[in-house]
């Protein structure tokens, strides 16, 4: 065995709870474990990264990971941690989402069928779709009492919540369906462990009960902590909502920035959870960081490693270049190398004005560009004073009073970046 999985996730701060005997069970031989993923979108987000990393460490420790796409459960909705029911999906959408999710999981898991511990992807819709309601309540439902189900925190919290409208029967049965998944994988894939977030403990233990009562076997549970941010805000959310793994939903630049902006306290925690760096490397980085926190060594390495895990080296290089445009020394050439989406991400929130591109044929005077064309500066007089003070830049390069904007200045054929001093920016868009 390559390494002790429980030891590995413990030092990384990724173990919340494990059923007694789990570590010994794993040390005996290669074991299969599964984690369920919600297929309600065609991309995972960074909130899914902890269970993904769990599965990846599990495979690296010589065991066999199974990623379960909740096609059937995605049609129901999980009450755990939710205050309302989720939208239900049709089969075509679920299959599309499954393929997209598998592609993202492939960056962390080896699905190559030749190795004994190759990862597998399964969808619970495949075994639930032909299971009739009568068969289910006869073969599964009779083994779990309502008292047992009502005692679960996920059910109690929904029923006692002030804003709750109660809980539908559909959602109430969720833990039985998830529990049956464990039993099915135990019987058909020799899978003896289910892993997930700490909010899943109730659902997972319902599965271990079914394995015991119907499968006459023993199932184990491992949960990871729910990640929080030191300032109390929700991990994985930015001003624009979820931070997605799909670059079309969250650009590599924004993804990189999310990690780069971590607090010192969070960065120390995140670098253990979200990277594959070993313990000596991480301890060395933490020591360096504590000695010179202003250098943000931890945040930079964290942002680099996570971006590289999800995106390409080229995406990472571009994200670093884009970050330097706002926060470091960069040139007009760096600006012109940005694609439109990244340019707009970098200068999101920066005031903009539109003007006609044909005006560039004869050149647009810098005083006019700063004043009447943009209202960046209040008057021509203020524009002249700023130019005399040498505080005006076009695309990061200082200019004088006689400067004329031309088509050569266009970034992506449409933008020109005006700047006063270090931090005041304005985007002129030529259409």
Overall outline: elongated
How would you characterize the largest beta sheet? 6 strands, mixed
Q: Helicity range of the residues?
A: 40-55%
> What is the residue-mean pLDDT, rounded to a whole number?
90
Determine the strand fraction and express it as a percent band. Answer: 5-15%
What descriptive keywords fit this protein?
431 residues; alpha/beta; six-stranded mixed sheet; five-stranded mixed sheet; 15 strands
Q: In words, what does this structure look like?
A:
There is one protein chain. The protein has 431 residues and is an alpha/beta fold. Helices cover 43% and strands 14% of the residues. It is built from 20 helices and 15 strands. A hairpin with a 2-residue loop joins β11 and β12. α12 crosses α16 and α13 packs parallel to α15.
How is the secondary structure organized here?
Blueprint: H1 5-11, E1 17-18, H2 22-28, E2 32-37, H3 49-60, E3 64-69, H4 91-105, E4 120-123, H5 125-128, H6 133-139, H7 146-150, H8 153-160, H9 169-172, H10 174-189, E5 191-197, H11 201-213, E6 220-224, E7 237-238, E8 241-242, H12 252-260, H13 264-273, H14 279-291, H15 297-310, H16 313-327, H17 332-336, H18 340-346, E9 352-355, E10 364-365, H19 366-370, H20 380-388, E11 392-394, E12 397-398, E13 404-405, E14 415-420, E15 424-430
Parallel strand pairs: 2-3, 2-5, 3-4, 5-6, 9-15
Antiparallel strand pairs: 1-6, 7-8, 10-13, 11-12, 11-14, 14-15
């Amino acid at each position: 065995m390559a390494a002790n999985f429980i030891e590995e996730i413990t030092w990384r701060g990724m173990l919340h709870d494990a059923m007694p005997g789990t570590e010994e069970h794993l040390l005996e031989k290669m074991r299969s474990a599964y984690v369920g993923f919600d297929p309600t979108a065609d991309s995972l987000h960074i909130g899914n990264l902890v269970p993904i990393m769990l599965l990846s460490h599990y495979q690296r420790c010589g065991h066999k990971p199974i990623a379960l796409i909740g096609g059937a459960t995605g049609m129901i909705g999980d009450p755990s941690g939710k205050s309302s029911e989720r939208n239900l999906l049709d089969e075509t959408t679920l299959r599309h989402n499954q393929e997209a999710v598998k592609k993202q999981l492939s960056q962390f898991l080896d699905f190559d069928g030749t190795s004994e511990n190759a990862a597998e992807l399964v969808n619970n819709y495949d075994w639930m779709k032909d299971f009739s309601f009568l068969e289910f309540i006869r073969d599964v439902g009779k083994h779990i009492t309502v008292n047992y189900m009502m005692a679960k925190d996920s059910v109690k919290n929904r029923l006692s919540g002030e804003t709750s409208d109660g809980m539908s029967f559909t959602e109430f049965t969720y833990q039985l369906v998830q529990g049956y998944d464990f039993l099915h994988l135990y019987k058909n894939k020799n899978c003896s462990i289910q892993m997930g977030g700490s909010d899943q403990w109730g659902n997972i233990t319902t599965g271990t009960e079914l394995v015991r009562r119907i499968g006459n076997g023993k199932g184990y549970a491992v949960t990871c902590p729910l990640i929080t941010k030191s300032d109390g805000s929700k991990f994985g959310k930015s001003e624009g909502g979820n931070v997605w793994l799909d670059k079309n939903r969250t650009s590599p630049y924004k993804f990189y920035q999310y990690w780069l902006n971590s607090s010192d306290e969070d960065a120390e925690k995140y670098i253990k959870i979200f990277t594959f760096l070993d313990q000596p490397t991480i301890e060395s980085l933490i020591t360096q960081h504590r000695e010179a926190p202003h250098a943000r060594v931890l945040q930079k390495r964290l942002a680099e490693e996570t971006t590289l895990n999800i995106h390409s080296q080229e995406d990472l290089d571009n994200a670093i270049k884009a970050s330097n445009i706002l926060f470091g020394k960069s040139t007009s050439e760096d600006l012109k190398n940005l694609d439109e989406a990244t340019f707009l991400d970098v200068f999101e929130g920066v005031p903009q004005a539109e003007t006609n591109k044909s005006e560039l044929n004869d050149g647009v005077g810098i005083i006019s560009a700063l004043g009447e064309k943009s209202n960046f500066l209040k008057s021509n007089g203020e524009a002249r004073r700023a130019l005399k003070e040498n505080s005006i830049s076009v695309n990061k390069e200082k200019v004088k009073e006689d400067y004329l904007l031309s088509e050569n200045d266009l970034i992506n054929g449409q933008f020109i970046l005006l700047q006063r001093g270090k931090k005041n920016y304005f985007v002129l868009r030529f259409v």
